[in-house]
Amino acid sequence: MSYKEKKVLPIGAVSELTGLSLRKIRYYEERGLLLPERSNGGTRKYSFNDVEKLMDIANHIEDGMQTFEIKKMQKKKKQKEKVRDEMIRGQLNAAFRMSK
């Protein structure tokens, strides 16, 4: 796991890094746009990837997009990544079988 994927940042640090209020960050979570992990004590923990995602969300909001549109866009992107990963896996499997 890369350092960018590790969920270690508290919401206060994320707020400072992004310039977003705690309220906005929680709202984006409520809307399902990002999913922080929770510590045993219930504290939200974010990754650097989450920080980048929040900046993208904020930019889309600033451009006039609605949260449901952003969520739909995120879902399409995730589906494309899944298809791409499956294609790469298939190509690797085909190449591996050919070498036997």
Automatic annotation (TrEMBL):
<keyword id="KW-0804">Transcription</keyword>
<keyword id="KW-0238">DNA-binding</keyword>
<dbReference type="GO" id="GO:0003700">
    <property type="term" value="F:DNA-binding transcription factor activity"/>
</dbReference>
<dbReference type="InterPro" id="IPR047057">
    <property type="entry name" value="MerR_fam"/>
</dbReference>
<keyword id="KW-0805">Transcription regulation</keyword>
<keyword id="KW-0678">Repressor</keyword>
<dbReference type="Pfam" id="PF13411">
    <property type="entry name" value="MerR_1"/>
</dbReference>
<dbReference type="GO" id="GO:0003677">
    <property type="term" value="F:DNA binding"/>
</dbReference>
<dbReference type="InterPro" id="IPR009061">
    <property type="entry name" value="DNA-bd_dom_put_sf"/>
</dbReference>
<dbReference type="InterPro" id="IPR000551">
    <property type="entry name" value="MerR-type_HTH_dom"/>
</dbReference>
<protein>
    <submittedName>
        <fullName>MerR family transcriptional regulator</fullName>
    </submittedName>
</protein>
<feature type="domain" description="HTH merR-type">
    <location>
        <begin position="8"/>
        <end position="76"/>
    </location>
</feature>
